[in-house]
Write a structure and sequence with these properties.
Two copies of one chain form a homodimer. With 242 residues, chain A is of the alpha+beta class. Chain A has eight helices and twelve strands. The first copy, chain A, has a five-stranded antiparallel beta sheet with strand order 1-2-9-4-7. A four-stranded antiparallel beta sheet of chain A has the order 3-8-5-6. In chain A, a hairpin with a 4-residue loop joins strand 11 and strand 12. Chain A is elongated, with a radius of gyration of 19 Å. At the A-B interface, strand 6, helix 4 and helix 8 of A face strand 5, strand 6, helix 4 and helix 8 of B. Chain A binds a DNA duplex (30 and 30 nucleotides) through helix 7.
DNA sequence: CGAGCCGTTGAGGGGATTCAAGCTCAGTGG
DNA sequence: CCACTGAGCTTGAATCCCCTCAACGGCTCG
């Protein structure tokens, strides 16, 4: 974990004005804060960069901080005592992760970077301060919690239900939304697709190959792809009726 | 929906002192409130009773209230545009449901009573009042949100992963925890089991019958069963190694 | 008593897994 | 430079789990 403190006003610092200029400010946790508020907090928030497949935090760890995702994709994993692991959710730009820490609770999942990830690390006590001083923060927090809950329930409904082919289509739809609109999307390894959709690597591979032949996706190795959204929609619709 | 206002001090009222005497007070949303606080809110909270298979609220509805579950089991459903429906989570005694309403958002799921359910209906504005007046409430709220998020992620990991036999064992384990310890548990209809585990009725029936033959559960029709927790544990363990 | 819902069981088929082999590609060291 | 290696991906063949289609019995209720 590369941790760099943020000094908003020191223009010589590479992370100068990072909070104020943060591209996700409008949708991030402190989006509603004015400059005075930023002055108060900016010295406590650190910018964190994580390389793919490195953990942000581990399940059971007594966390002292929450994170906002500034860029990249984070996955949440749980594994059974028997060893099989399952990816239960993804988070992307603007999402708040590790909220359990605010309740002095251990982290509930393994959080691992899928792509290069940029995070803002926010100490627990800092949120506590703002929660008492300001009125708007709790509401922002609850919003994040609800977003996470909604994402998790949608994961059950879309990525854990029905035939494998449809589950993969839904996954691609999500990946497309997580990336730049129209741009190439991050494509997980086959083993990761399997962990997301509860499939074996072989089945994941077969299905991806099939979509490639059908023209729904164009592979851009390694770990990227271009998605034909129109073809994807078509495939999803013909899925139900066929 | 049978709605009965709660008048805490009117001893002639059947719901008299319901808030003060509420069995789930210690673990419920207003658990931390003192009597003075109760005085303020008790006239605004209504007791709601719902019969099995009746909705608490519908997805998309602009909700003006959250609910705490005082007794019974509530299920959350989502259905795809193609018509197939999936149960994504269960809630039981002490759980807070419909929290989206606090954010002026439409309800995210269909919430439907599985068993006879008793709820406390808490208007949104009441929570807003308490949130500004008291400091402890937001924390309680966040705790509920985290409980729901955790339940949803566990649903992915346990009830949507692996072979159907193991998924059913995990479901029975949950149902046992939702009911009285040692007592009979509520057993969903086969169709409902199917919607929870993404199975057909036939497969659900076959698996239940198998567990009955193996002595893991004893059916107590209609819609109840006794579970041999030791046998269940054994079955879950031999599952992984076999 | 017949209608309808729920649960059960059987037979057959299909989709996903398992086991296995071969491929590409980047990194390594001769 | 190129064989060697290992990780990731792909494909094939056989097996198995679960689905589909179907029939039937128990039960409630009009």
């Amino acid at each position: 974990m590369a941790i760099v403190p943020l000094y908003r006003r020191d223009a010589r610092h590479p992370q100068a004005q990072a909070c104020a200029a943060c591209e996700v400010r409008g949708s991030a946790l402190f989006g509603a804060l004015d400059d005075a508020g930023l002055d108060h907090i900016h010295t406590h928030i650190a910018s964190v960069e994580i390389t793919p497949d490195q953990p942000v935090y581990a399940r059971g760890e007594a966390g002292a901080a929450v994170f906002t995702v500034r860029a990249g994709i984070v996955r949440f994993e749980r594994s059974s005592p028997h060893g099989d692991r399952r990816i239960v959710r993804l988070a992307g730009r603007g999402d708040l992760i590790g909220q359990e820490a605010l309740l002095q609770r251990p982290y509930a999942d393994e959080a691992i970077a899928c792509t290069p990830v940029q995070l803002c690390r926010i100490p627990r006590h800092l949120v506590d301060q703002l929660a008492t001083a300001q009125g708007s923060l709790p509401r922002e927090l609850m919003l994040r919690w609800q977003v996470a809950l909604d994402a998790s329930e949608a994961w059950v409904a879309e990525l854990s239900s029905g035939p494998a082919h449809r589950r993969l289509l839904h996954l691609l739809l999500r990946l497309a939304r997580l990336g730049e609109p129209g741009g190439p999307v991050w494509l997980p390894r086959r083993e990761e697709i399997g962990a997301m959709l509860d499939l074996t690597v072989e089945t994941a591979s077969r299905l991806v190959s099939r979509l490639r032949r059908e023209g729904v996706i164009e592979l851009l190795p390694p770990r990227a792809a271009r998605i034909d959204l129109a073809a994807l929609e078509r495939a999803l619709n013909s899925e139900g009726t066929g």
